[in-house]
Structure formats: C-alpha cells, structure tokens
Specification:
This protein has 231 residues and is α/β, with parallel strands linked by helices. It has one domain: Rossmann fold. The protein is built from six helices and seven strands. A seven-stranded mixed beta sheet has the order 3-2-1-4-5-7-6, with helices on both faces. α2 runs antiparallel to α5. The two termini are 15 Å apart. 45% of the residues are buried.
C-alpha cells in the first residue's frame, strides 16, 4: 500500500498525543508521513490578562516537551503556533482557517485528525470548525478521510444536551503502540495529573483498554468519522 500523508491539527501541546498518539505512532510505523500542527500556545490562560512575556520560559519548556513527544511517536514535522490559550474565540475564525488551509495546501494530506465539535474547551471547538472549513469538499480536495478525536478532561466533561455528544464509529487498534503513546505523554509530565483525574496515566490507559474491548481489541483509540471519500 502506498504510504499516506497524515495531518493532525490540535489546539494545545499534548492534545495531539491524548487524542491520537497511538494512531500517530501506528501511521509512522507503517511508513506514513505524519505532520502535526498545534495552534495555541497552551499556557497563558492562567493569567487574567494574557501576558506572554511572563511565560517565556514555561512556553519554551512546553515547546521542548512537544518536540520530544512527537519525536517519540515518529512525527516527521511539528509546527507550533502562538494563538492565545483558551482565548481562540477572541479571534476571527477566518484567521485560523487560513493557517490550517496553508498546511493542507503545503502537505497535501490524505488523512486529517482533529478535535470533536462538542468538547468543553473552547479552543477545541474553534479548531474543529477551522479544520472542517479548511477541508471542505471542493473539487481536487486532497483530504479523503477526516477523523475527530476525544481529549480526556474536555470531551467527557461536556454536559449532556449542551452540544453534540462524542459517539465514536471508528476505532484504531493501538495494542502495539499504546506504550509509545504513554512514553510520549511522559514528555508532557507538567500537563499530567494524579489519579483519579482523567488526565492521569491510569485513566488514559483505562480509556484505551475500554475503547479496545468495545470492539474486541486489547487497546484502541476512538474517533468519529467526519468524512470518507473513496476514489
């Protein structure tokens, strides 16, 4: 089978590993070319008023963690942008769409992974809208498969009835790559929490095992298939 080009578009550093780290490692091990685009800086939401200069050192550490994590997974190219953390609703959506469009045009991916529309985190929802817009099915659109992932401590924290629920209909076997996903998350040690927080090591392993056993696998990541074009 011809190697595929894969683009993962995530809001914050660690979302890409939480959402589809096992699938990324599987793609890479199969010889696919994986590119990751992370759009928000992931730190300054802790300020009442955004002050990026205050967090220069912390942002550098987070960027280093992202590079290490993606290197573990076998990502060919990682791009980190500087949109404001948890404030992406303050931007014109078109500005975000244009960035995603530029990456789609540059890398010509067959497969795109991104956030589910119903996440509690506002940045996740903005990224979802931007990616769906950038990957709209125009003639000669390169993207044939669009997959939407879940992110612990966002997807499951949304309350019932507020928006679209995450009901997966596509599963990727990560039995052989779960260890790599967990190793990559260790690079994001500052973002991880203690059990029983959903962003704990134990919870993430439990989720992979649960998603797996629901479809007869040892471990899996679950997705909503947004679009599949067969040619």
């Amino acid at each position: 089978m011809k190697p595929r080009k894969v683009l993962v578009v995530a809001a914050h550093p660690d979302d890409e590993v939480l959402g589809c780290g096992g699938a990324i490692a599987r793609h890479a091990s199969n010889g696919d070319e994986v590119h990751v685009l992370i759009l928000a800086e992931g730190l300054t939401s802790r300020d009442i008023i955004r002050n990026r200069d205050k967090h220069t050192e912390g942002l550098d550490v987070l960027a280093q963690a992202a590079r290490k994590a993606n290197g573990i997974l076998g990502v060919k190219n990682l791009d980190l942008h500087d949109f404001p953390d948890n404030r992406m609703d303050s931007l014109d959506l078109l500005d975000v769409v244009k960035v995603v469009e530029s990456f789609v045009a540059r890398f010509q991916p067959d497969v795109v992974y991104t956030h589910h529309a119903g996440d509690l985190n506002i940045d996740h929802r903005i990224i979802h809208e931007a990616v769906v817009t950038a990957c709209r099915p125009l003639p000669k659109q390169c993207v044939r498969t669009l997959l939407l992932f879940e992110v612990v401590s966002s997807t499951e924290w949304q309350v019932s009835g507020s928006t679209t629920s995450f009901i997966p209909n596509c599963f990727v076997d990560i039995t052989k790559t779960l260890d790599l996903k967990m190793e990559a998350l260790e690079a994001y040690d500052s973002e991880m929490k203690a059990w029983p927080h959903p962003r704990s090591r134990e919870a993430i392993i439990h989720l992979a095992r649960w998603r797996g056993c629901t479809v007869g696998l040892e471990a899996a990541e679950a997705f909503i298939l947004g679009r599949q074009v067969v040619r």
